[in-house]
Amino acid sequence: MNIKKLFTAMLLCAITLPMAINAQKRDDSRYLQGAVPEVNGKVVFSKEFLINGMSKDEIYNRMLSYITDRMAKNNDPMSRVAYTNKEEGSIVALSNEWVVFSSGALSLDRTKIKFQFTALCSEGKCNIEISKISYTYRDTEKYQAEEWITDKYALNKTKTKLVIGLAKWRRKTVDLFDSYYSEIEKALSTQPEAAPEKTTPPASTSTGIVVIQVPQSSTNAQVQTTTNSTVASTLHKISPVDVQSKMTSDMCSCKVVIYVGEDADDMTIITAKRGISIGFIQGKPAAFAYLDAQQQSDAITSAKGYIIKIMDQGTKGVKMVLHCKPISSTIENGARVVTGEILSAESE
User: Fold this and answer.
1) How far is CA 145 from CA 33, 65, 149, 180, 190, in A?
2) Which CATH topology does 229-347 take?
3) Which of 70, 188, 272, 299 could form a disulfide with 268 if both were Cys (CB 3.0 to 4.6 A apart)?
């Protein structure tokens, strides 16, 4: 970081310090270590969406429609879809949009953020990558994400706190891309959209897999007939960090059931009607179970631990078992999101 950028960071620190002292204590856990992922020294946010039964063409068409509209909302000629190839399933967009840190009657603190958005569509899957992130502040000050929002610069030495002055850049960047992921999930889902509720999104959603539950009747998915008998599955222990890579596209249509309690005759059983996604919180693997908003989760969050079973809808065979420790329960986009750290796991 050169002298000019260091001076700017110190100036930002001086401006924001009084606000930091007077503000209520903020929970920044979702912005700490691992919230800004790096690949070969470059900041790269990524997310994989699994949509069982949806064709490559339909996913491509939905994504192209979404990102075209999203770039138009920026009201900036530099925000545009730059490349498309339907055969490859590739879409590349360049975004140049405002990120507002704070605004008031007499002041407006904001920055322009530029990045490349890439979508790669295939059968039942869409991979998103956001890279080449940079900022233009006050027209003349230019910064690269690698020297401004990474763990090295934006976190203290113990990785337990955000550095004052750079904190707002890291928070707003993570929040922006979380909003993209949320919009993409809606664009790729046929579920009716619920009334928005302003809440804190689940922690550390910079990378991971999102499983989207899509009703069979709304896609060209092949309907298969199976028996109602329970099929026993042979499960093997896997490392919690490998759960994400073990998630497959056919698990999108699986039933997700949460079991709370040690007594088999007195267990609380809750179905996560909206599916499950896997990610990381501060470098630790985590499961995000999506319930309907009206479903209660007190039994889960008050327990020492709980079990998630991912089961085949037809055969009832168990494909994966996750042993979790509760972290939080929040409302996001009309769904109750139960977040838990994955302590151990078994998979087919």
Assistant:
1) 15, 28, 5, 18, 35
2) Pnp Oxidase; Chain A (2.30.110)
3) 299
